[in-house]
Each structure stands twice: as C-alpha cells, then as structure tokens.
Design brief:
Elements lengths: L9 E8 L3 E5 L18 E4 L6 E7 L6 E3 L11 E11 L5 E11 L2 E9 L9 E7 L2 H10 L3 E2 L3 E3 L5 E3 L8 E4 L3 E4 L2 E8 L7 E3 L10 E3 L4 E5 L11 E5 L9 E3 L4 E8 L5 E4 L2 E4 L13 H6 L18 H4 L4 H8 L3
Antiparallel strand pairs: 1-4, 1-8, 2-3, 3-9, 4-5, 5-6, 6-7, 6-9, 7-8, 10-21, 11-12, 13-14, 15-21, 16-17, 16-20, 18-19, 22-23
C-alpha cells in the first residue's frame, strides 16, 4: 500500500535517443540530432527502424530553470538536469512539416546526452530535411504539451448546474468547482493541433468512470476520484490520476489522427471542476505551462507568476498503482460502492 504524499510535479514525455535520428545526407552525415548550436540547415535525417520512444519523467526544479530526471524513469541519470534546447522543423518528401523538441541532459555543467521529443509521428526510412531551428519556441511548445486541455464539445458544469459545451464559455462565466463553489473563468485558451504523438487526446468512453458522455482530454490531464473504498491501494480515499496512465485500449484509449481543438480553462486558483459529470482539473500555471499563457493574463492572475499549491495536488498517485489491466474498472467500482 502506498502512503506517498507531496509528490513532485512531474511531466512524462516519450522521447527518442539522439542516435535514433541520424543525418543520412549532409554536413553532419552519420551523426545523431544534437543541440541548436551544432545543427546544420538542410541536413537530411532518418529515424532508425529500431527506434523506440522511451518515457522520460521530469520533475520541476524549485525556483530554477530546467527539470530534474526522476528516479522512476528508464532513460538518463536520475538527478541530472534536462533543458529545453530548441524546437526544430523538419520537412518530409511531400513538403509536410514536422516539429521536434530537442532536450539536453546535463551533468556537472557538461552535456551528457541529447533526446528528441517529436510533436508528430515520425516513421523509419523516411527523409526529413532540417529547415528551421527556433530556440525561443521550445518552451512554448513544451508548455502546450504540458497544458491540461479539454476538447471541443466537452460539457462543463456551470455554477447554475447547466451543462455548457466548453466552446460556448466566456471569460467571467461562473463554473462550479469542487473546493471553492462558483468561480469565474479568468482566461480561455484555444489551440488547434495535429492529433498525433503527445497531442493525441485520450478518450474516456461514456460510463467508464461514470462520465455522462465520452470525455476527450489531453494525455496529462488529471482526474479527481473519490474512492468510497480504497480499491486502488493508494492509502487514501481521494486520488488524482493522469489519464495517460489509464489507457487500456478499450474503455480508455488514445485517438490518433486528424486535428484536435483543445481548450484550457484558467481560474484564479488551480481548481477541480466537472466535465461530462466527472471531476477534472483546470489549467495549472507552473514552470511547465506558464509560457502557454499570455503574460498579461498571468500578471492579472493576482500578480503571481504561478498558481499556489492546493491540497488536492498531494492526491496524485504513482503510475505503478495504475499499471494493471483493470485500473479503470477498480476506480469505477471504488467510486460507486
């Protein structure tokens, strides 16, 4: 039984090693992708046939830039620092462009390793020509990955009890929150992205967790579940679970392909609200996500850079508790028995 509390705020991303994406034609032929200062425009890259995306778990560094590799991860050295180096643009043979984030691992101030986080699906034995390098865009694009988002058509419970689709909400509208009752929406973000890779929404099918309709959210969105019985073994009745850890290919699955309209709801405080009848978090401003929120909005949010920590943040459970084929069924039963 786990009794862990005060889990660090983490972001898990699926990365490739630099050697899995090598130059096959150009100045740096034979070399893997590297940091911005050493990239050469027009070099042609290919992903190796054996390339496998590996989960990399990153914990926030208090008051400092970059992230720390979490001990739970299977790649890199725990405790080393990861920096977002750049966002590079690749062009395929059909002129389609693909964005890739370059992450660098640093140990004692020296480069230890380079990883790439593709923001779209790359395939083996296909040419990708380097056509753009942007050092400034990396934090914004990473923030878009980290932002918890609802999809178009999601019904949000208003303070009046009305179920309103998210695209019809306006700043100032009052939404029902679990902890603070009616709260006004301070900002609504909207982005349209390719529904591939880290931007593919997770579908929680109708009824899987007592939701009234299918609920589609971003992969790192956390749901709040009150267990009447602790069937999950979390050591407490209140738990926050990331939807990416609930994917079972059946009642909860990743929908890949096409485009997705994502919406972010911001309040004065990080809140638990209700979407399709179940409890889910609102946007949390922290070092991962602040670049996705306009500066004037952040300044108006109580003149604070980030949201203060709320008690419910301590309810997040570790992935290992959800690494079982019946985790969704257990949570559904635990919340209704």
């Amino acid at each position: 039984m786990s009794t862990d509390t005060h889990l660090p705020t983490m972001q898990t991303v699926a990365v490739l090693r630099s050697e899995d994406f090598r130059v096959t034609e150009g100045v740096a032929e034979g070399e893997g992708i590297t940091f911005a200062d050493e990239l050469v425009m027009d070099d042609v890259y290919q992903q190796s046939q054996s390339a496998t995306r590996i989960p990399l778990s990153l914990a926030l560094r208090d008051g400092e830039d970059g992230f720390v590799i979490d001990p739970s991860t299977a790649i890199g050295k725990p405790g080393n620092i990861i920096y977002l180096d750049s966002c590079v643009t690749m062009m395929g043979n059909d002129s389609t462009t693909y964005e890739v984030l370059v992450l660098v691992e640093v140990e004692d101030g020296a480069l230890e390793a380079t990883y790439l986080l593709p923001l779209a699906n790359l395939v083996a034995d296909t040419n990708y020509r380097l056509v753009g390098v942007d050092r400034d865009a990396a934090t914004t694009r990473f923030a878009e990955v980290a932002c918890v988002s609802f999809t178009r058509g999601t019904h949000i419970t208003m303070a009046s009890g009305e179920q309103r689709v998210i695209e019809e909400l306006s700043v100032g509208d009052k939404v029902l929150t679990r902890d603070d009752g009616p709260q006004a929406v301070r900002w609504i973000g909207q982005t349209t992205l390719r529904a591939v890779g880290e931007f593919s929404p997770i579908v929680i099918t109708k009824g899987a967790l007592h939701n009234e309709n299918d609920l589609l959210v971003s992969p790192d969105h956390r749901l709040f579940v009150y267990q009447r019985q602790d069937k999950l073994g979390a050591g407490r009745s209140e738990v926050l679970v990331k939807v990416r850890h609930l994917v079972n290919g059946d009642s909860v699955y990743r929908r890949d392909g096409g485009f997705v309209d994502y919406f972010q709801l911001l309040f004065d405080e990080h809140q638990i609200i209700y979407a399709e009848g179940i409890a889910a978090e609102s946007l949390l401003i922290d070092p991962r996500t602040r670049a996705a929120v306009p500066e004037d909005v952040r300044a108006a949010n109580g003149n604070r850079t980030d949201h203060a920590r709320r008690q419910h943040s301590d309810f997040e459970v570790q992935e290992k508790l959800l690494a079982q084929p019946d985790a969704v069924a257990l949570l559904r039963k635990a919340s209704s028995s």
